[in-house]
Amino acid sequence: MSPSGELVMNRIIDWKTLKTMVPYARQHIARLEKVGRFPQRVRLGNGPRSRCGWVYDEVVTWIEDRMNDRTPPGGAMTLGMPAR
Length: 84
Description:
Blueprint: E1 12-13, H1 15-21, H2 26-34, E2 42-43, E3 52-55, H3 56-68
Antiparallel strand pairs: 1-3, 2-3
């Protein structure tokens, strides 16, 4: 529950869904996770081969951050707003 007492649901997505959102290989995702540059996966069980997934909202935020960090064509870096 959140501090306000409301139930907060975080959707967990599997690899099949993740790869439709982020066109990286499993190995590259693992490397990015290891150095803290991609959301960490969530283990859904206790065993060494247990299923895992990623928090959907964290992945969407990661994608949005990449989009906001782009440099506009022919322009200087802005704070997510196109230069006028």
